[in-house]
Amino acid sequence: MAEHNPAECGIMIDAATTVDRDDAIWIEPLPDGYDAWIHIARAADHVRAGGPTDAEARDRVHTRYRADHTRHMLPAPVVEAASLEPGRACDTFTVHLRVDAAGRVLHAALGPGRLTRSWALTHAEAATAAGDPAHPLHDTLALALRFAQTMLAARRNAGALAFYDLLSGFATNEEGQIVRLDSAERNSGYVIVQEFMIAANAQIAAWAVREDLPILFRNHRLAAVAGDPAELRGELDAVAAAGDGAAFEMLRSRMKMVSRAATYGPTVHGHHGLQLPVYTHATSPIRRYPDLVTQRILLAAALGRPSPYTPEELAATAAHVNDRLDAERRAKAEFFKQRAQAETARQIQAADFAALPYKQFARVLQYAIERGDAPPGLAADTARRLDARELLLREFASVYLYGSADFQPLRERMNRRLAREPQQAQSVVNVYLQDRLGGPVSNDTNVHWTVEAEPGFESPLFSAQVALTFGDERIESPKRLQRNKKDARNQAALALAATLAGLPDLSADADARPRADVPRKLLVDAAVNPAEAVQIYAARGILEDLAWEFAVEGPSHERVFTCTGAGRLRATGEPVSAAGTGPTKQAAKTAASVELRVLIEAGLALGGTGSRAPA
């Protein structure tokens, strides 16, 4: 491209119908990374804090997009004046990032900027330009796509549930929920915008923390039963590779059940959906009121002025926005619930269940289960969908847990399938508990696991037991023994699910013999990995009181875990401990286990009472 000032160039990438353009991007190559700019429209210059336009924006909270119309947060003249437009010089708030080839932000500069040269493209046009060497913006957008892919990989490596499947049209949003993309978003232009904006918002929030500057942070906490994001991402990757749309929907339903809505606040509580220690919304001040408020604070700080909001005013604004968004979610849910009920009643009368799309079938099924009366043919069609692997978790759990006598043969079949696939049992238990609580589940107060090594057997065994508490009730599973913790938890959950459903308990313990008080081979085979070897020594009673502790340091994109393993040699009573570090918990545990195994086996080499298994 001809001579230009890259700090004043930008490409706006939006939907074809967008009229409120509030962000633009630009990028230049470095020898080992990128120089990236994110320009944000200076909406704060056009809306006086505390004025009538600001009051209306505060009341509306955000722009609402409907199928037939758009209800803008700001009046049309303000939108027109504040929007970034090609061919028009615009004042902006600019985030300038210097990023290395691995996606690590080396430097971030924030402050007033200017956009003097700009272009507007749709998502599809940006994707086409990124792949077309003849396009005048090809070099910039190809580099932008590479940057986006680098940042996405860095977020995934940090543990975020970050995922785009443009072919199937599924992606994860900021809260870790699986969402469907519009057809116009199923391209790399959409990915470019998402990753640039996430990077900008994360760096703005980090800058505010470093400056001890209260803004409206975006905080998010996953439900305690949501699972490890890394494991969920692995499931997503596997489903994407298989192209299994039904499995996508099952994962989507599961994540929706365990998700919690993110909230705004003047203090930092972390963003678990993105796996970031701090986050905010600042890149859409024309469309979101929290972004407008935060922009005012950032501009004042950049100009050396005090914040235009007191801590009390900022907290009140956060509470207002959170309340309004929560009320919107509830009103929307109620609206669709009532509409669905009317449609469901009509479809039950029609009784042609096999012809129903899955979403409508699911409503009919749920309606029938809540009434306790299944119309003829519904149980048979549910069984057909179960056999075809079309029945998703929510509907499976509803029939399994609450199905009337019409569903009894099917419930017994489901019980046998759950015994073959016990990894699904915890999700079924979670559905039951969510139904009782009427909302998200917490491990701190509602789900209590006891998982521990069982040293009294010849081979390593672990026991697991789970208890649910809600209101004044407490329901416990029997203790189940398996060769690893995961299987023990699955079998305990399977037993509890059967109890909750009033069905036969098909869970089982692993076959194992109690340890006899006779001489035995003590040293674990050298081929066994260190962490498993240490667990075997603990199971044999050679190492007592084994405990693992973890600590983590460093920023989210390059975390370093430290694992410390400690116990006591039974033969001598001598304490032993070792520590290891690594980029993941497992790597740190393996490093610690290497040294701990050496200490245990050195103690065994000294002989003594360690040559016999304990009584």
UniProtKB/TrEMBL annotation:
InterPro entries named among the record's database cross-references: NA-bd_OB-fold, RNase_II/R, RNR_Ribonuclease
GO biological process, one term: mRNA catabolic process
GO molecular function, one term: RNA binding
GO CC, one annotated term: P-body
Domain RNB span(s) in chain numbering: 13-304
Pfam family, one: RNB
PANTHER family xref list: DIS3-LIKE EXONUCLEASE 2, RIBONUCLEASE
The name this protein goes by in its record: RNB domain-containing ribonuclease
